[in-house]
């Protein structure tokens, strides 16, 4: 994707001096942070740390509008010692980022992912990709999918599933929006096509190689089976769990036993390339978050594994509580992570919204005032900006809203242009409307530039930036059979309406899918 705002904001000499000073803390505005990170990424790799996954996703989307080479390294949805496994798409995204981290320009992660130990076994994972015309033994592919923790089923429905029918393999890669059908001719891959889960029909070819990323960070190898066999006698209270692992069965929460099944844990710092700069966005919130995580995880460790007390082995090496062995997989203290980064000669710094008097402050940028739907107030502000020589850019989430504001500005005799990008020399007498994922507007005082986003115009932060994320739980839905004529309902797209009746749709869709709809 070509960044739409690349090169639009340039740092002043004073701002560059502050960044080059080597100061650990830089005080700046929240809206300027994506531009400062993009500037730093032009000189060396960057690891950006945020306090939450929502902030990480938003920030990654914003930076992607300014420069290329953005990767996300998400945290598990589960705690290290919680007897639950993280989602396969989360695991695949983590592994994919680690495999590409040496070439990444910017990696955005969370405090939780930063302090969580990583199984060193990831280093041994070999990438696997499939493409049309490739020679690959059919039975070998099935074995490799199982080795990568894909779940063999009769019908593919979820990420991480695969099914075999004759010379066809259906697979749902964790990072793919749709499952893929692989058709063989002998041992040659003849076709790769996406298909719908609902009717199992293919609809589009796969373009380029199809990466097959493991669905778990702990893969059951022969070494893992041997280790599980040993642990079965050492900790008889967990005999059933270790017996399943020894048999090659993935148990729920196997990741919580990573530090005893496969000793040797790393931190994210170990994977960072030489010369990388670590930027903590709002460091106090990160520190507070890490403190809470460590306390909560310790509670889970004591509660989940309290029954596995002292081992019964006579070997003094193993005559210790399982809880003690599991501590190697616990969250790492933030100060220890910082010291590890310094020992590796990596730059560790904070981008904070507040600081002390002796902290370096970047004063080039200011926040944009919120207008909360007050069009007249916004028009007056645009006129004042143009009067003082400012270039005005309006960033919106959708093209429809851009057209609406173009018409509003035209009614006020303000020239407005809708553009796909700003890779040209803009005219300051015109207002430029563009669709980006910026969440906050910014005023560049030195370059006389103002970017106003949808959140300032409407007064509400747009939730679409996280719309592709998997929901943590299902929302309450209405059973159409319980509706009565005249009941009020809220439609996801069309808003409030009144239910009248249900009718059967007799089009091709009905004959294929059995769809019915409600009349409002």
What's the quick description here?
With 520 residues, the protein is α/β, with parallel strands linked by helices. Helices cover 30% and strands 21% of the residues.
Question: Mind explaining what this structure looks like?
Answer:
30% of the residues lie in helices and 21% in strands. It is of the alpha/beta class. A hairpin with an 8-residue loop joins β9 (168-171) and β10 (180-185).
Lay out the secondary structure.
Blueprint (H helix, E strand, L loop, with lengths): L12 H8 L4 E3 L5 H9 L4 E5 L2 H11 L6 E4 L14 H13 L5 E5 H5 L2 E2 L8 E3 L7 H10 L3 E2 L8 E5 L2 E4 L8 E6 L2 E8 L6 E4 L4 E3 L9 H13 L4 H8 L11 H4 L3 E2 L10 E5 L1 H22 L17 H5 L7 H10 L3 E6 L7 E2 L3 E3 L7 H13 L3 E6 L2 H13 L4 E3 L12 E5 L6 E3 L4 E5 H5 L29 E4 L3 E4 L2 E4 L3 H6 L2 E4 L1
Parallel strand pairs: 1-16, 1-17, 2-4, 2-15, 3-4, 7-8, 15-16, 19-21, 19-23, 20-21
Antiparallel strand pairs: 5-14, 6-13, 8-9, 9-10, 10-11, 11-12, 18-22, 22-23, 24-25, 26-27
Helix pairs in contact: 2-3, 7-8
Q: Which overall shape is indicated by the principal axes computed on the Cα atoms?
A: globular
User: What's the main sheet like?
Assistant: 7 strands, parallel
Mean pLDDT: 85
- Secondary structure tally: strands: 27
How many helices?
16
Strand percentage lies at 15-25%
Low-confidence stretches: 309-319, 462-477, 505-520
